[in-house]
Write a structure and sequence with these properties.
The protein has about 400 residues and is an alpha/beta fold. It is built from 14 helices and 13 strands.
Length: about 400
């Protein structure tokens, strides 16, 4: 009878060089986990705690039952792209070709990453206006590009002198987010024209993050890059069905761009996700056809929440910053506490029972003297009232 000789196993650690050595778990995941652990009300991560329109959910269910469960075309269902072309044309006067100039994506974050991977080459510079959504810089680094951080002004308005100073022959693109996360500020038509004038003599592309496009308050209009011909010619315009229709977990977004840019976008898109789940697309196409005006009520819907939330916060020692759009409200807590922003958010979650996000999470080099945090008010009235009751103790 033969015996098998045991061979000693020699353990060793594998050498691994990280593509993103400075990146850890996002602050949104960290604060949401802490809120759950502490039983706190989560006004940190930006998602609604209410459901989408039942009609939209029913449309997705009907699509599944009708057999729309296999791969759709790589660029997205034609019916959905056609509906989006109609919508953009009605809103901004620019008709994108649904066949060649609109692509459905697995959320806006994938759209942003794909646009960056499509056009940014190693060594290219990309201007990022800070504070900025935390996916921008890692996406640029994954493409081998160099993020060039340009701070917004103290009131979170664009600093065009600083942008002009940052533009060089190596600038491949600039990322602009309006309505702006985290500040809630909104770019004006004059701002967009100044940007167009700055970019006119350059080959710099614009990646326009417009996921909060339908959440603009007090009669202000969203100024899309698609509405300015000189910008549209050099722009990837990104938006999100999840934000617009209260369905962030569906992870469906879109990008519109001139065909020369979209051709490069799709080269990357087909290899990082290929396409996006079919029944969600079919349901959204049906909803856009039957409820083409659904997005028109969104500003009033969220403005009512903003106004109620701001009214409640006004009774605290928190100082309100302007909120012109999005579903985020930033506050200055310097009259209340001197802890740095991340420490204050931890304390607020653990001791007060309300989770917020520090603005330091949106900047590579935050202002150490600033004392500001961001709340999300995309919540049911009962959730906001409970949060305000707790914040009233501050």
């Amino acid at each position: 009878m033969s015996t098998v000789e045991s061979v000693p196993v020699i353990s060793r650690s594998l050498a691994l060089r990280s593509r993103l050595p400075h990146v850890g778990t996002t602050i949104f995941t960290v604060m949401s986990a802490l809120a759950q652990q502490c039983g706190a009300i989560n006004l940190g991560q930006g998602f609604p705690d209410f459901d989408p329109d039942p009609e939209l959910v029913d449309a997705v269910t009907a699509a599944m039952r009708a057999g729309h469960n296999q791969y759709p075309p790589m660029a997205g269902l034609p019916a959905l792209r056609e509906a989006l072309a109609d919508k953009i044309s009605a809103l901004h006067g620019n008709r994108y070709d649904p066949v060649e100039e609109i692509t459905i994506t697995a959320g806006a974050t994938q759209a942003l990453l794909t646009a960056i991977l499509a056009v940014v080459h190693p060594g290219d510079e990309v201007i990022v206006l800070t504070p900025a959504y935390d996916s921008y810089a890692p996406a640029i680094e994954l493409a081998g590009g160099v993020p060039v951080f340009v701070p917004l002004a103290a009131d979170f308005r664009p600093d065009f002198a600083a942008i002009a100073a940052a533009l060089t022959s190596r600038t491949r693109a600039i990322l602009v987010n309006s309505p702006h996360n985290p500040s809630g500020r909104v770019w004006s038509a004059a701002d967009m024209r100044r940007l167009a004038a700055l970019l006119a003599p350059t080959d710099t592309l614009l990646i326009a993050d417009e996921v909060y496009e339908h959440m603009v308050f007090d009669g202000t209009m969203h100024q899309s890059a698609a509405a300015f011909a000189e910008l549209a010619l050099r722009s990837f315009v990104v938006s999100s069905f999840g934000k617009t229709y209260h369905a962030t977990g569906w992870k469906v977004g879109m990008v519109a761009a001139p065909r020369t840019l979209m051709r490069e976008f799709r080269k990357v898109h087909q290899f990082n996700v290929f396409t996006v789940n079919t029944p969600m697309q079919a349901g959204l196409a049906h909803y856009l056809r039957t409820r083409p005006d659904a997005h028109l009520n969104l500003s009033a819907f969220y403005q009512a929440k903003r106004d109620r939330f701001r009214s409640g916060l006004a009774a605290t020692r928190l100082s309100l910053l302007p909120c012109e759009g999005t579903y985020f409200q930033c506050v200055d807590y310097s009259a209340l506490d001197d802890r740095p922003e991340a420490e204050f958010c931890e304390w607020l979650t653990q001791d007060v029972g309300v989770a917020a996000i520090p603005l330091t999470a949106f900047e590579p080099e935050p202002n150490p003297a600033r004392r500001c945090v961001r709340f999300c008010f995309a919540k049911r009235e009962a959730t906001l009232e409970m949060a305000l009751d707790r914040l009233a103790k501050l």
